[in-house]
């Protein structure tokens, strides 16, 4: 087994989906274990692929295959296996395995006094399998069409899982919002792909990149295509202004959120930009645009996370902010740093969501942080895991995300204007603050009397937490040369001619450590000893607070556009169609003919008046013919 | 050629006629016998269509295959000549699939199902005849044969609807549909006579006429230009071309389910097929002249249909307008005058035929159970109609162009063709697919998801019959979406020949 068989990795999931969706009802426990087997098999299959990849030599390997052809277009279903793919395969199969195992515990609810599986448990696991399989296809795809196919499939699965409890109106609306918002971006993506394909005559990613970097495509078209493709990435990766679906997506079961935020959905946009980074390096203005959108998103997400009281939404805004970091870094050309942060953030964020799920599981789906507090006494494992995750994402040394944040800082400093560095550091400060706030509100302080019955979650749920917690502590060390042939992430996962070694830039490292640790401590201190200061700040800046609580009024604005513009246009066109096109145009013409028919009735007595018309038309035809021949 | 191969095309025409004839002699009360014979005939038709499709030699065979010709009126050069090319072959297969699903669904007709089936089979015979005719006279004859039964099928078995500020009696829908299509077919008749005379061959045979197009002094540009415009409107109307589309939504609202299936599924395709067969093949200069207009109208179709569908809350109006929108891609593909675009147009006809028939199967099932199609009244049906929901959602996903389903491949090919010639219009076409997502998801969200109203508590899921009909349609939807090659390689030679005529 080697990289030739890497196609097996997504295939298990597709098969599991098919079997469970069609025959799940005849299987014991609706076939939920099939899904677990499939994802674990994918994780196991990943290892021989990795070893083969390393033994073949780190680089880009191509496994071509033809899917279909039409005219001069031939579309493949081949694979690219390069370090980026390897990293994504590892992250997706690993996180998805843990999330699915966790789901075994989470998706058992109390029903009329006894605990049982969710009634649609089979469907849940089936779509989970499909979701992961689609994402794995996306990262393996060697051509833009297969990538787009997987991309849309990922969107579909998120739609199905966010709306999993479709009896709830809010879940239906959230799922619809997610699908349509990302779909708006996808219009750009598809047009962008079509421009590149029209210019280069192929869907194949490496050939397209080759043509673009060789200057075969005009700068204008390259830039336009890069912009449009980024629209797709903005939708999937919840970048401003297409981020609005992400917080609402919390309507889905919490393990789904963990999956969406860490592995299978929002990472797709970052992955896409990373995959096509050579194109963005040619299209400089598009790359700058990526950076600007990235920093706006990072700041917007961080500020929103600071005021929101819903635990899951806080995590969602945090994800948004971190995705902004990754886009910013890609905009700075920091391929390694962005992908590295994708990995570290994925591990920590998956754990944070699973911790939130663990709390909800024992608190009857409560997500309001103000109703929590002191939970560490009742849920020590969850508390420890959450705290580690929060520290990691705040960038506290030496946890996982500290290393990647540091890499990003270096990349941004090297690649962009200093103003971006300043704004990035502001966002870093904010992320430490909101993480500290959430950690304190949920786990520290006194335990509320109504929460006495809260208990730690079962082993199936706490075990994945422990695994992820350990990784969130140690995973960052892959940045360092760990001996053997491994010379650190910068020499494994890079783009361009040469990798780079991990370098400590003492000044910047100290700045980032001080800022992160300081703000985290400040956050804890504010909520622990000086609540009144928090309240004072809130009152002092009540205007800002209102804007933040109302999410910058973006949802309101979109709702207005949908109701007052899009639907109004639909109604106007429909009315036009009925009254003008139909009543005037068709009925009017019909009545005229009818009137003429009445006058002609003395001559034509047959019931089928149109036969008369047919004869008339015949005469016209002959006349027309004579005229044309004469001409 | 084996005996079977020699006769398969005429069998496709005779078989539904024979079924109709047999039904004439079966006493009216024998309802289940009538159903049985009809469904068996539907199955036989699908098998024969599949046979014809597979027998088509895509690799180096002649342009028109499985040819058969019987002299009919030698003096005027009219012969009963049959044959299929790469564009007709998938249409024949489509007709087979939709006919089987349609005859199965038609089994729910309670009143006079004998007469219903007789008319339905005449319609099917007409559709097959149009697709396989190589003689323009018979082409037109079968074309009319397919339309006329519509009037009775809708007028007698249809349903009238009352809306808040307007009424749509079934007679109105039936009359409008038939009058508009018949009026448009007059244009086609003029074109056919014109071409017949202009070619100077004294023959109605398409191949014979094609050989004369390039001869000096024949088929002048003016002639082609005028004729193409008439062809475009005449056939375009049946394909739902804006602004002559208004028969389509009203016709579907009035029509019984199986008629809607056949109508949107195959009859509308006669329009697109006609534009290719007569417009593109026989009047290439005319197409070149009017390509931009056709392109623009196609784009209007896509956007206008989708935007209109946004505001509808009657399930059939939504599907009716979505058909208007989807047929726009067919026009765009043809107007691109590229191999990819034309392939996409043909495949889009196939894909749309299947998905719309599937839509109507489920909508009809819902209407029978609830006696309403109003999405403001229907809600939460998913908890009672699990399979119905699944089928509808899949049809919806195909409709919004989800990769992996037939619609996507077709639209993608149309887009590639469009981007090679008119990128701006092509981009608007992509936008249309996004609007489709909005109305489909709104519809699904309201009708199937959410809390269920008490009055739907006793709703039942699809009957085995409906389930089978839906599955017959679902299989090709997935098959073509995941592996379109078998269809594409058949369409390819047909498109190549058409392009050769265009001098491209």
Based on DSSP secondary structure assignment, what is the total number of beta strands of chain B? 4
Share of β-strand residues of chain A: under 5%
Structural class of chain B: mainly alpha
Largest sheet report of chain B: 2 strands, antiparallel
Given as residue ranges, the uncertain stretches of chain B (5+ residues, pLDDT < 50) are: none
**What percent of residues of chain B are in strands?**
under 5%
> Main sheet of chain A: which strands, in order across?
1-4
Number of domains of chain B: 1
Whole-number mean pLDDT of chain A: 85
Question: If helices are DSSP runs of H or I spanning 4 or more residues, what is the number of helices of chain B?
Answer: 18
Q: Radius of gyration of chain B over alpha carbons? A: 21 Å
Euclidean distance between termini CA atoms of chain A = 75 Å
Across the major sheet of chain B, the strand order is 1-2
Low-confidence stretches of chain A: 604-608
- Mean pLDDT rating of chain B: 89
**Which value, in Å, is the CA radius of gyration of chain A?**
29 Å
